[in-house]
Amino acid sequence: MTEESHSIDTATGTEAPAELSQERVRRIFGAIARQYRRFNAFSSFGLYRSWMRRTVDAAGLTPASRMIDLAGGTGDISFAAARRNPPAHIQLTDYTAEMLEVAQERFEAGESMGVPMDFEVVDAQDIPYSDESFDAATMAYGIRNMPDRMRALREVNRILKPGATFACLEFSTPPNPVWRALYHVYLKVMIPFWGQLFTHERADFVYLAQSIRAFPDQATYAQMMRDAGFKDVLWRNYAGGIVAIHTGRK
Prior knowledge:
The chain has about 250 residues and is of the alpha/beta class. The protein has a single domain, classed as Rossmann fold (3-Layer(aba) Sandwich), CATH 3.40.50. The protein is about 45% helix and about 20% strand. The chain is globular.
């Protein structure tokens, strides 16, 4: 049965053609690929490294696992997995070729610690792999930038083997109203500032801040995962709910 498609403008959450967000994402992340890791480090005050490690821990990897890292960017999750809990193989994918070029350079420099990796430009809303191909899937800061999130979640579920885990790190909604208000000020003021500092592309980082504010809260996103077919959906907040790691089982 064909599922109904519903695409949004990822900056606002309102209905819009998918091409609007897809073209913007390709342009923005292609332009910032070389500075992306530095931006993450400074804008999170270094906390993102801990969040990456916790995402790897949540994925349930074993030495026999075949893992897919979707929207994997420059490879932070993949290389964290290789260091922390190495699987048998990692399929590192992203929508933006320039991000994967940086990841491949890191691989060639030895950051995979000997774990085999393949790299492919992939739209996670239309994954070109067979059903039940992977033992674990990860995604960090990716689902927020996809205009048809339900389609992407159904695709992730499709390619996982029964019992496999999907671990998703994403910016979220602090439950404390005071902390949430302060965080929204930070997003409005500081994220564009960091963007201007590192890439001289302030407007692109205004979009990133908008997309964070427009993303569903923890409970809403958890229900989306359940609607896509995942079981045992849970989340854990970090930094007071600025980010959350959601997990679900095929």
